[in-house]
Amino acid sequence: FCWLSLNVWFFWKTFLLYYQGLQYYYLHQMLGLGLCVSRASASVLNFNCCLVLLPMCRVLLAVLRGSQKVASRKTRRLLDKSKTFHVTCGVTICIFSVLHVAAHLVNALNFSENYNEDFLSLNAANYRGEDPRKLLFATVPGLTGVIMVLVLFLMCTASTYAIRVSNYDIFWYTHNLFFVFYMLLMLHVSGGVLKYQTNLEEHPPGCFNPNKTLRQNMTVPKAFEETFPDYTTEPFPEDLSIPEPFVQNNFMRICSEEPKFQSHFPETWFWISGPLCLYCVERLYRYIRSNKPVTITSVISHPSNVLEVRMVKDDFKARPGQYVILHCPRASALESHPFTLTMCPTDTKATFGVHFKVVGDWTERFRDLLLLHSNQDAEILPIFQQRRYPKLYVDGPFGSPFEESLNYEVSLCVAGGIGVTPFASVLNTLLDGWKRYTLRRLYFIWVCRDIESFRWFADLLCMLHNKLWQENRPDYINIQLYLSQTDGIQKIIGEKYQALNSRLLIGRPRWKVLFDEIAKCNRRKTIGVFCCGPNKISKILHKLSNSNNSYGTRFEYNKESFS
Question: Which positions, given as ranges, span the membrane (predicted)?
Answer without folding.
Answer: 44-64, 85-106, 135-158, 170-189
